[in-house]
């Protein structure tokens, strides 16, 4: 119990990626958050659901500036997205997937899922994909392969990343020293976001069906 109390007051004492991330962010500062979000975007196994709330916790403790943490996290995520976009545009989707699927802990199916999401939803997938676990980090690849307009890609990427990053950073800040609960609550956040998107999609489908019926009656 004493160890848990100590860890709660000083997250850098934790081992693994959480302890490493806390040490890096406190030593480098807010730019350390940007580095992690860049890496998380390019290398999905790095969990933003842990890194960003931890950054919010450190900001709440006064070790980091909250506003700068949000800005650098968005910038890091955007730069990572640009890297994947450029890779998709330069190599094409199939070659890019073959290359990236060779990375450890990266599954080819994840890239194919992102490509399918982009194929079904088009440009809007870049925005909504930033809010979907398993799609968030990979949606840039099919967008680049499809040569999506770079300005639109940038706007949708920055907007989606801003929402997701701000939510997780704020969650970590709100939880304070109880940041070890973040992983549990971030999973609920994932479910809530997915449910909200499904609700919007269902509403759009119902509205289209109703319009079709009204048009057929005229």
Structure description:
The protein is an all-alpha fold. The chain has one domain. The chain contains 11 helices and no strands. The protein has helices at residues 2-9, 16-28, 30-42, 48-60, 66-91, 93-100, 108-121, 124-129, 140-145, 150-175, 182-217. Helix 2 packs across helix 3 and helix 5 (66-91) packs across helix 6. Mean pLDDT is 74; it is low at 1-9.
Sum up the overall morphology in one term.
Answer: globular
Q: Between the first and last Cα atoms, what is the distance in angstroms?
A: 71 Å
Q: Major beta sheet, specifics?
A: none
SSE succession:
HHHHHHHHHHH
Number of domains: 1
In round numbers, the mean pLDDT is 74
Model regions low in confidence, pLDDT < 50 over at least 5 residues: 1-9
Radius of gyration: 19 Å
Quote the beta fraction.
Answer: under 5%
Q: How much helix, percentage-wise, in residues?
A: over 70%
- Total helices: the number is 11
Pairing-aware structural class of the strands and helices?
mainly alpha
The count of β-strands is 0
């Amino acid at each position: 119990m004493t160890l848990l109390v100590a860890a709660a007051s000083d997250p850098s004492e934790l081992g693994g990626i959480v302890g490493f991330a806390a040490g890096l962010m406190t030593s480098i500062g807010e730019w350390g958050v940007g580095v992690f979000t860049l890496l998380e975007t390019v290398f999905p196994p790095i969990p933003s659901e842990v890194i960003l709330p931890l950054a919010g916790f450190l900001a709440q403790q006064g070790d980091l500036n909250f506003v700068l943490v949000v800005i650098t996290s968005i910038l890091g995520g955007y730069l990572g997205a640009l890297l994947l976009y450029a890779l998709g545009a330069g190599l094409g989707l199939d070659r890019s997937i073959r290359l990236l699927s060779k990375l450890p802990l990266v599954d080819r199916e994840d890239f194919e899922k992102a490509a399918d999401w982009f194929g079904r939803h088009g440009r809007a997938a870049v925005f909504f994909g930033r809010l979907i676990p398993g799609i968030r980090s990979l949606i840039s690849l099919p967008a680049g392969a499809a040569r999506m307009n770079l300005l639109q890609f940038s706007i949708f990427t920055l907007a989606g990343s801003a929402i997701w990053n701000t939510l997780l950073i704020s969650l970590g800040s709100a939880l304070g020293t109880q940041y070890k609960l973040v992983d549990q609550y971030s999973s609920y956040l994932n479910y809530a976001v997915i449910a909200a998107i499904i609700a919007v999609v269902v509403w759009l489908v119902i509205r289209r069906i109703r319009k079709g019926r009204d048009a057929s009656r005229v």
